Amino acid sequence: MSRSPEIELAAAQEQMVKVENLSKHFPIREGILQRKVAEVRAVDDVSFSIPEGETLGIVGESGSGKTTLGKTMLRLHEPTEGRVEIGGTDVQSLSSSELKSFRRNAQLVYQDPSSSLNPRMRIIDIIRTPMKIHGIGTEVERLQRAKELIEEVGLPVDYLYKYPSALSGGQKQRVGIARAIAVNPDFIVLDEPTSALDVSIQAKILSLFKHLQAKYDLTYLFISHDLSVIKTISDWVGVMYLGRIVEFGRVGSVFDNPHHPYTRSLLSAIPTITPEDERLKPPSLSLEGDIPDPREKPSGCALCARCPKEFDVCASSEPELESVDDDHFARCYLHEPEHHPEGPEWEET
Fold first, then answer.
1. H helix and E strand count, the chain
2. What DSSP line would sit under 184-238, residue for residue?
3. Of 45, 66, 75, 211, which has the highest C-beta tally within 10 A?
């Protein structure tokens, strides 16, 4: 019987975020009458939970549905079906006015800091505006809060009177982070917040995220294609492929003992510098071809056509997300005794 992560983890500790069977499908329309001819299942029946004060990292190739998942959870995209609960609030049931109030508790830090800041606004106004919208404090109190926040994210107070064009990429991202925490949220979606930054700056931003999480008891959904970043920042990891979670668990468990061929292929592709690091990687597993067109998802397991471990049932039936270990789940027939009684063999390929 399939056991979903949100059911397994709910018994362990209080959950800040619960996602149940969430889907987001984009219709493809053609012709003068714009008839629907197909659809892209960007997020397809996804379920998970995030314990309060912890971080879930979502990782996968471009086009796997990571960003769409984060935006759908916050209702920046309206979901096709499913349920999202954040801080005890059923997000899908909120009216427009209720949704505006809710956004104080759930914020988003964007991937590209240059495009996410208004170039015509000074930094002080970028940080103060969310507080003003949500009716937080007086003008004097908002000014004082802006000064505290700019120092909190590691920038001098005089930067408040600069425009974004005067700042570097890392400094702009720090402003974006200050804007996100200005309204005292409980939950933040971090959409590849370090991918546009130099490696040396990435480390400082990750340290800042950890500091803010500890100080304000924040819960994060951290989206990234970089497994090294995910390992550094996350408590849990969900691996996405063509809109589905194919593996989910504690970071240490998934990285040390991956159970899905897709996860293993991603981990074996991580660049290493020293022979010691190379020996710590799982045996190499190469996938054939490219990720399929999301408009024409294959029947059965979506990875079947690329997977060197596939066998007959993979092409006709999609596996469930099954428990393979404590706090560890995988969507693969290799771990079901009736299909593979001796368990998988991960020889190098």
1. 13, 12
2. --SEEEEESTTTTS-HHHHHHHHHHHHHHHHHHT-EEEEEES-HHHHHHH-SEEE
3. 66
**Separation between Cα atoms, residue 234 and residue 224, nearest integer Å:** 11
pTM, two decimals, is 0.89
Q: What is the pLDDT of residues 183-199, one digit of tens each?
A: 999 999 999 998 878 88
Please state, in angstroms and rounded to a whole number, the distance separating the CA atoms of residues 217 and 315.
Answer: 44
Give CA angle at 134 (128, 137), nearest 5°. Answer: 65
Task: Show the tokens assigned to 14.
Answer: 């209080």
Domains of the chain: 5-105+185-335 (3.40.50.300), 120-176 (no CATH)
Q: For residue range 106-157, what is the model confidence (pLDDT) as tens digits?
A: 999 998 888 889 999 999 999 999 999 999 999 999 999 999 999 999 999 9
- Can you say how many angstroms the Cα of residue 319 is from the centroid of all Cα atoms in its chain? 23
CA dist list (Å): 290 to 179, 286, 302, 319, 336:
38, 11, 12, 21, 27
Bridge partners, 332 (sequence order): none
Nearest residue to 339 via CA among 306, 311, 305, 300 = 311
Q: Are strands 187-191 and 328-330 parallel, antiparallel or unpaired?
A: unpaired
Helix (H, G, I), strand (E, B) or coil at 305: helix
Residue 334 and residue 344 in contact, taking contact as beta carbons nearer than 8 Å: yes
